[in-house]
Write a structure and sequence with these properties.
alpha/beta, ATP-binding (chain B), nucleotide-binding (chain B), iron-sulfur (chain B), 10 helices, homodimer, iron (chain B), 4 iron, 4 sulfur cluster binding (chain B)
């Protein structure tokens, strides 16, 4: 039961995009725009509240810590855009110029776009049905002046619906390097995450790997570890074994993560030696290696 | 409200939308003239049919949150268990989370299937007086993905309300996905004649959650849906070893308590984190029955009582006005 048309994501842009009659115009325009973006990464989960936006924001911070890299985050969660808050950009507004919409800059080499920047107040509700959300996503991809990017990270809402189909379809010619799937250890999460994995398989979106958040909590007082969200069916580890996916890492619960997100600061910078920050760093490294291997492979095939 | 004909183009706004016939997606559609004439904007007959069906349902409660993963389904399931513990009451849960239906798992009904009869679809029974309906029961496997755009999801929700043979119910609890989109608009619109007693809003303490939850509250205000109150989940964790309390999701801006003060809403209660909740949910058992003396279970019981009082006050008020 699926609304998915048969778009192949392995198509790479050529010089004759705009002459291709079979590609809808917006998709061709977006592919043109994306020629200056080296790597596109989707952050997905079937389940809500597992840490997608937290992960997207901190992946971006980590990649941008190399000041020679240009990084951007595109937040396509239209109803619940968390990225502005998490990246300390609440209240910022988007500006239009001749070359399109300007994203908001966290750092010189770190740009962000979110519907949050188009609201008068962060509490304003965006009560839109699917078609309107799709239109917004198309605009984000086509009309934002991203410039040259090494990495574009796309943060998504939970589910397998309009936003997910649209982002995959609009980027079908441009191509997506892969998806990072976020989960927490319990079966109620994994059940939804397996659906997201099925979605990726159906739309032929490669999966870079899986991140298990909220993976245990160490009491700051007595150092006892509690599994607050118990991995009753083996957690992400077993799911990855069963589905032949790579477990990129497990990140423990740490109250400082939630605090940093609320305060719009990177916890990688705030508590760089925490087990959570170290876990994130290893995960980011794996993603960087995946992306550069992909580039090497494409160059080898050319 | 988003009926999309089979010959409509992609991004059809729906024949009953304000944009029907006038949107950019409508150009070239064979139905464009008809839609633009306004002929398709008559009220959806399903709304009246659903109101008829709902005459045998005393109380309808929506469980909402702007934020994902805060415990809506957990709360819906356990509210249902608690209400159904009075065996003289008939209770049902309707799960309108089409993409991520958690209710079957949480209520121990994974793998169950729905049956059709002359009087419509039969829901699945957890107990004699506790029925459940979810798209989960229509899948061949719990891992099957439902990859649908809005209009198809809306159609499913309409069917759930119109075609399920609920029978006489004291309480119908509707579990929703996070957000303020198709599912939320549809459930409110399809029940607009039947009426909804109110919504319970679920959150966790941190500002990133509250920010989304305030949007949900705005949604309720916009559609004139009364808010019964707010539940704050994951409100602290007591280490089982040393009993030290940690605020794992710190209420940096005052948590649900301050939000409720600011918005004039009732804080129904705060439920602490407890690993036994997650375990019970995974195993499809009610933690209210498994660990009835836990702080979490006691918090839930008080919250349920408040909701029962709200509903019976509403009934008394309606009777007084008649």
């Amino acid at each position: 039961i699926c609304d998915v048309p048969d778009f192949s994501l392995r198509a790479r842009p050529t010089g004759s995009l705009t002459h291709s009659l079979s590609v809808p115009p917006a998709i061709a325009e977006i592919a043109e725009k994306m020629l200056t973006v080296k790597h596109k990464i989707l952050v997905l989960s079937g389940k809500g509240g597992v840490g997608k936006s937290t992960f997207s924001a901190h992946l971006a911070h980590a990649l941008a810590s190399d000041v020679s890299k240009e990084v951007a985050v595109l937040d396509v969660d239209i109803c619940g855009p968390s990225i502005p808050r998490i990246m300390g950009l609440d209240g910022e507004q988007v500006h239009q110029s001749g070359s399109g919409w300007s994203p908001v800059y966290v750092e010189e080499n770190l740009a962000v776009m979110s519907i949050g920047f188009l609201l008068s107040s962060p509490d304003d509700a965006v009560i839109w049905r699917g078609p309107k959300k799709n239109g917004m996503i198309k605009q984000f991809l086509r009309d934002v002046d991203w410039g040259d990017l090494d990495y574009l990270i796309v943060d998504t809402p939970p589910g397998t619906s309009d936003e997910h189909l649209s982002i995959v379809q609009y980027l079908s010619t441009a191509g997506i390097d892969g998806a990072v799937i976020i989960t927490t250890p319990q079966e109620v999460s994994l059940q939804d995450v397996r659906k997201e994995i099925r979605f990726c398989q159906k739309v032929k979106l490669p999966i870079i790997g899986v991140v298990e958040n909220m993976s245990g909590f160490v009491c700051p007082k007595c150092k006892n570890t509690s599994q607050i969200f118990p991995p009753t069916t083996g957690g992400a580890e077993r799911m990855c074994e069963e589905l032949g996916l790579r477990l990129l890492g497990k990140v423990p619960l740490d109250p400082r993560i939630g605090r940093s997100c609320d305060e719009g600061r990177s916890f990688l910078a705030e508590v760089p030696d925490s087990p959570a920050a170290l876990a994130y760093s290893r995960i980011v490294k794996s993603i960087q290696e995946y992306c550069s291997n992909l580039l090497t492979e494409e160059q080898r095939l050319d």
